[in-house]
Write a structure and sequence with these properties.
Blueprint: H1 2-31, H2 33-50
Length: about 60
């Protein structure tokens, strides 16, 4: 069960990253670095939210 959830999380993360990459490519010509920084901030926050903290035991 845990394995399945992890695979699902990895899949969803990959999907989000692909979407963000497309958005970045579309808007990159306009805003350059700013958009990329925003995308990476969002990605980092998303991954931090999705990944379980090591010091918190899973309920």
């Amino acid at each position: 069960m845990m394995f399945l959830m992890e695979r699902q999380t990895v899949f969803l993360t990959g999907l989000v990253l692909r979407i963000l990459a497309k958005i970045t490519r579309m808007q990159n010509q306009q805003n350059g670095l700013l958009i990329s920084e925003q995308v990476w901030t969002c990605t980092t926050l998303f991954l931090a939210t999705v990944s379980p903290s090591p010091d918190v035991p899973p309920s």
